[in-house]
Design a protein that fits this description.
The chain is an alpha+beta fold. It is built from 4 helices and 4 strands.
Length: 118
């Protein structure tokens, strides 16, 4: 016989698996600006570079998401990186090539690319 406590334990385990599976507990978070103006500036292509790198296993322990308008249209597309224990970093005018460099230099080698910061 299944008890109410068994049902709750099962639901909790499923919820924890979803949270971990979606990367919500990752130590690195990447937010790509996906407001209408950022999409027009090329943020979909930038998001795809990050998405493909994660899918291919090139990035570990990274949560990728989108964010809304930052009010800095002249600096779009923007990418914000939040790492556990560090000050958040925001890059501007990110192209797909810059996204690849951010992956290699910042996310893999812990090098903040000063000249692209906003």
């Amino acid at each position: 016989m299944v008890t109410p406590l068994d049902i709750i334990k099962k639901k909790r385990a499923e919820a924890v698996a979803r949270i971990i599976g979606r990367g919500y507990l990752s130590t690195k978070r990447v937010y790509v600006g996906m407001a209408t103006c950022e999409i027009a500036a090329g943020s979909k292509e930038v998001m795809e570079v990050f998405r493909q790198s994660i899918a291919k296993g090139g990035l570990k322990d990274v949560y990728l998401s989108q964010k809304g308008c930052a009010g800095r249209c002249n600096l779009e597309p923007t990418v914000e990186i939040v790492e556990e224990g560090k000050i958040p970093v925001k890059y501007g005018k990110v192209t797909p090539e810059r996204a690849r460099q951010i992956i290699e230099r910042h996310l893999k080698n812990n090098e903040v690319i000063e000249e692209w910061l906003i």
